[in-house]
């Protein structure tokens, strides 16, 4: 399933000099057929626990207490459990829960669409950091240097209430970097047309963010030198994993 927004764009470059009203109607109809419906029901599933566990000492209360959690990207699928729909996901709700090897129903959004309970700044900054982790290697990136700190940076951005998300000292530079990028207009919601957010129907389940197949985000393009690399970073790929009949809670307690 390809959620790329690029499918509907080429027609916008066509200029018609006759019957502009009909032309606009035709463009609108084409866009409605070509682009995915945002906020509509879709299936989402997590696969097996990838074993990406991260431990750090809290910089908030209780100061120095050790925190250990599985961190992103998590293997899963959006739409159908087939190879083409398997992606890497970031949990964006630290205090909620989800289970490995479990399917959920919910709504699929892009970050240019209003998502209940989340601000544009939060979504753009989280998308900036998820894109950054993909560029650093995604599931192959260092857990201690990148996966862990960036995951906790995203959690803290999405829930800045003191005490809700343990403060990881290594996450703070990433938070500041994302905030700076947003406040100086280096990135906007339009920068990340392929970033998706899954919001489950059950409000006790975590929301998840992912980068779907399609043209890589602009930040990725800048960092890459070959067409092959552009294709490989469009989606985090995971090996097929056998389903564990005993579903473990993931990625939070």
SSE topology string: HEEEEEEHHHEEHH
Distance, first to last CA = 31 Å
State the low-pLDDT regions, or none: 1-37, 215-247
> What would you call the structural class?
alpha+beta
Number of domains: 2
**Percent range of helical residues:** 25-40%
Shape: globular
Compute the number of helices.
6
Write down the Rg: 19 Å
How much β-strand is present in the residues? 15-25%
Largest sheet: 6 strands, antiparallel, barrel
Adjacency order of strands in the biggest sheet:
1-4-5-8-7-6
Number of strands: 8
How would you state the average pLDDT, rounded?
Answer: 78
Describe this structure in words.
With 253 residues, the protein is α+β, with helices and mostly antiparallel strands. It has two domains: 1-35; 37-232, no CATH class. Helix content is 28%, strand content 19%. The strands form two sheets. It has a six-stranded antiparallel β-barrel with strand order 1-4-5-8-7-6. The protein has a two-stranded antiparallel sheet with strand order 2-3. A hairpin with an 8-residue loop joins β2 (53-57) and β3 (66-70). 39% of the residues are buried. Mean pLDDT is 78; it is low at 1-37 and 215-247.
């Amino acid at each position: 399933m390809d959620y790329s927004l690029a499918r509907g764009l080429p027609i916008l470059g066509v200029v018609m000099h006759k019957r502009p009203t009909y032309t606009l109607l035709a463009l609108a109809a084409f866009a409605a057929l070509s682009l995915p419906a945002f906020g509509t029901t879709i299936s989402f599933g997590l696969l097996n626990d990838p074993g990406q566990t991260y431990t750090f000492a809290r910089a908030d209360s209780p100061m120095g207490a050790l925190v250990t959690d599985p961190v992103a990207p998590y293997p899963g699928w959006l739409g159908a459990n087939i190879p083409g729909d398997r992606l890497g996901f970031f949990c964006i709700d630290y205090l909620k829960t989800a289970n490995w090897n479990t399917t959920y129903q919910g709504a699929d959004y892009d970050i240019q669409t209003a998502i209940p309970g989340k601000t544009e700044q939060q979504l753009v900054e989280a998308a900036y950091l998820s894109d950054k982790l993909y560029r650093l290697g995604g599931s192959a990136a260092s857990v201690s240097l990148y996966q862990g700190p960036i995951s906790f940076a995203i959690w803290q951005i999405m829930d800045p209430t003191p005490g809700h998300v343990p403060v990881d000292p290594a996450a703070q530079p990433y938070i500041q970097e994302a905030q700076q990028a947003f406040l100086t207009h280096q990135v906007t919601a339009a920068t990340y047309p392929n970033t998706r957010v899954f919001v489950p129907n059950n409000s006790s389940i975590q929301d998840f963010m992912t980068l779907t197949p399609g043209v890589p985000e602009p930040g990725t393009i800048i960092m890459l030198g070959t067409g092959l690399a552009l294709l490989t970073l469009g989606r985090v790929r995971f090996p097929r994993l056998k389903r564990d009949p005993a579903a473990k809670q993931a990625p939070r307690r």
